[in-house]
Design brief:
Pfam families: TOBE. It comes from Tianweitania populi. This protein is mainly β. It has one helix and four strands. It is globular.
Length: 72
């Protein structure tokens, strides 16, 4: 697999919650870090995802926002 996205985080699928059309896929990156992705149910099936499947969380973002807590 070769992608233009630079943020490719290797992990293991630990949970999939399917909805009517979209699934929430949790990928354990290790050291207590978990990323959740929302993808179509069709994509879950096509990729053969299930708990224990090695997978990559690929993050492609065009914007980064910064926030601060004004109550501090």
């Amino acid at each position: 697999m070769k992608l233009s996205a630079r943020n490719q985080l290797k992990g293991t699928v630990v949970d999939i919650v399917k909805g009517a059309t979209t699934s929430h896929v949790k990928i354990d990156l290790g050291q207590g870090n978990i990323v959740t992705a929302s993808i179509t149910n069709e994509a879950v099936d096509e990729l053969g995802l299930k708990a224990g499947t090695p997978a990559y969380a690929v993050i492609k973002a065009s914007d980064v926002m910064v926030g601060v807590d004004l109550t501090a």
